TrEMBL record:
Cofactor field: FAD
Name of this protein: Methylenetetrahydrofolate reductase
Pfam families: MTHFR
Top class in the EC scheme: oxidoreductase
EC number(s) given by UniProt: 1.5.1.54
Keywords: Amino-acid biosynthesis, FAD, Flavoprotein, Methionine biosynthesis, NAD, Oxidoreductase
Molecular functions per Gene Ontology: methylenetetrahydrofolate reductase [NAD(P)H] activity
Residue stretches in coiled coil: none
Lineage: Bacteria, Bacillati, Actinomycetota, Actinomycetes, Micrococcales
Pathway in which the depicted protein is active: One-carbon metabolism; tetrahydrofolate interconversion; Amino-acid biosynthesis; L-methionine biosynthesis via de novo pathway
Family listed: Belongs to the methylenetetrahydrofolate reductase family.
Family annotation (CDD domains): MTHFR (cd00537)
Catalyzed reactions per annotation: (6S)-5-methyl-5,6,7,8-tetrahydrofolate + NAD(+) = (6R)-5,10-methylene-5,6,7,8-tetrahydrofolate + NADH + H(+)
Keyword Ribonucleoprotein included in the entry's annotation: no
Length: 297
């Protein structure tokens, strides 16, 4: 990823933000408000998640193309193996290339039935992220990223399986990884050390989700198999009736996590914004990661 090399040469970590594709015109407006606000922070890249169904996949492609064409942000396009044949996947990649997108996060994707449903390959499609990495490397012209799981992928049996699969994806041509959100920095360090011990040099950018809503993060944590630290839950529950106080606790926890990860040598931080930039930008400001000028909320 070019922006990783640029940031490393400048002796600073990358900062990046993840969005999801809007469902309707109102959602589009919310997304673009967030896009315009984060432009002020001059992030190294942003990414747009890729949905499980045909309609949401098209919305992802459109949102990513629009960000590439109409904003100053550099999008990394998510792409999954779900619901597409190989020729259809090539078409999506072509649409990204035409919009000037130069970097793709290659994922297997969650099963259309949700993260806990059994995986099923689409007839004529691909079965694993590694096959999509190979397809993209074969087409050429893209830097390719992959997913990593500090708390383990729900289908993996052991932490060493997660590290082994990540090393395989790097050997297949991935040049960076972005992680699922997590709360214990030691888990990220263990994954990175295990991958490095296999002789693989792969920047693994930790994903951070600032908690602004306890119910929502509890649901996400259940789906992804990420343990929520008991002391964080206690602090959030103590102020549960006060949304501003909940957000303040979430921002403080995400700031501490970011500090510890950067101190441990993380190459950058990737923030799950849920299309709302306020908490994320507060965390970035606390960490000194805002490079431009932020407009008022
Ligand atoms: P894979 O790398 O294919 O792994 C899937 C499972 O198979 C894992 O358990 C892995 O250990 C196992 N496995 C893979 N290869 C081997 C092998 N050679 N030998 C043994 N076991 C193997 N989902 C979406 O639908 N859209 C998105 O936009 C999206 N964005 C994401 C962004 C990030 C940063 C992350 C971390 C996840 C994202 N996901 C997204 C979720 C992701 O698609 C799911 O977690 C999916 O279940 C696994 O994807 P993967 O790319 O890691 O798959």
């Amino acid at each position: 990823l070019e922006s990783l090399a640029v940031a490393a040469a400048e002796g600073r970590p990358t900062v990046s933000f993840e969005f999801f594709p809007p469902r309707d015109a109102a959602g589009e407006q919310v997304l673009w408000q967030a896009v315009r606000r984060v432009e002020g922070a001059r992030p190294d890249f942003v990414s747009v998640t890729y949905g499980a169904g045909g309609g949401t996949q098209e919305r992802t492609v459109r949102a990513t193309q629009r960000i590439a064409r109409e904003s100053s942000l550099s999008p990394v396009a998510h792409l999954t193996c779900v619901g597409r044949t190989v020729p259809q996947l090539r078409q999506v990649v072509g649409a990204y290339a035409d919009a000037g997108v130069r970097s793709v996060l290659a994922l297997r994707g969650d099963p259309p039935g949700g993260p806990t449903a059994p995986w099923q390959r689409t007839e004529g499609g691909l079965d694993r992220a590694i096959e999509l990495v190979e397809l993209l490397r074969g087409l050429g012209g893209f830097s390719v990223g992959v997913a990593a799981f500090p708390d383990g992928h729900p289908e993996s049996r052991t932490p060493s399986q997660d590290a082994r699969v990540l090393a395989l994806k790097a050997r297949a041509g991935a040049s960076f990884a972005v992680t699922q959100f997590f709360f214990d920095p030691a888990r990220w360090e263990r994954l990175v050390d295990t991958v490095a011990s296999q002789g693989v040099d792969l920047p693994v950018i930790p994903g951070i989700m600032p908690v602004t809503n306890l119910r929502q993060v509890t649901r996400f944590a259940e789906l992804s198999g990420t343990p929520l630290p008991g002391d964080l839950v206690d602090r959030l529950e103590a102020v549960a009736d006060d949304p501003a106080a909940v957000r303040a606790v979430g921002v403080e926890a995400a700031t501490r996590l970011g500090e510890r990860l950067l101190a441990a040598g993380a190459p950058g931080l990737h923030f799950y914004t849920l299309n709302s930039s306020t908490a994320t930008l507060e965390v970035c400001a606390n960490l000194g990661l805002v490079r431009g000028r932020l407009a008022r909320a």
